[in-house]
Each structure stands twice: as structure tokens, then as C-alpha cells.
Amino acid sequence: MAAPQAASASQPLDNGRPAAAIVDSDIRQEEALSRTEAGKVITAIDRTRENIGMVRKTTKLDTVDIVFLTDAARSEGGPPPAIENKMKQHQEDVAELRQEIEANALLFNAIDSRRVQAEDVLAVEFDNPGKVVIYAAAKPPK
């Protein structure tokens, strides 16, 4: 009986502000077109293998930037061919990255707070210590 209580005490999720309790980071969002961000997204997809390790180690971030690639959302037909082809090349790594994001309380709550599903995450890029950019093929919540 002591183990479940100890686990829930480590990350208090029902204190009225669950995301803030875990994230405690500045979560920013912006909208962009995939054609203007394609170079950055493709570079980030190429680095997915090393970024998986970074996601696993991430426990604190100053800033989480979520870039909504609105024209790449499923409702718009998905990512453009250049990004889609790169996603297929790194299909297994991208799937693992999404699993790691779901398993990381900080990153999961950051995307969840903006109603982004892990399956819509195309790539992540660790800009510098304390900052991550998450590229999502999604539209921001209204």
C-alpha cells in the first residue's frame, strides 16, 4: 500500500494546476507553414535518433516551443512530400520518439496543454540547454 502513495506524492497531479506542477516551464506556441519550416523540420527529423536520448534525459526545461505546422495537419492532407518522405526514412525512430514523449511527464504535459497528440509530433529540436522546439502537424486549439 505504501508504494502507490509514494508514487503519487512524487508528481502531484491533482493540485489544481497539473501541467504547471510538472512542466514549470514557459510553454510558447506559434503557427507556421511547413514549406517555410521544412529545412528545420527535416534537419530535426534527421537528428531523431540522438534527440530520443535527449527526451529520455529531460526533466527540466526553461522553454518549450510548440510550432504548429497548420498546413501539415491531417485535416489539410498531412505533411508535404519532402517532410513525409523524411518521416518514412526515419519511421521507426519517429515512432520511438513519440513513445518517449508520451513517457516523459514534462513533455507530454506540455503538448497536452496545447491539445497536441504525440502522433502529430514530427520532430523535436533541442536548441540549447533548457529549450526544446516541438514541431507538430496540427492546428492550435481554438
TrEMBL record:
This is Uncharacterized protein. It comes from the Bacteria. Residues 1-12 have a biased composition (Low complexity). Residues 1-20 are annotated as: Disordered.
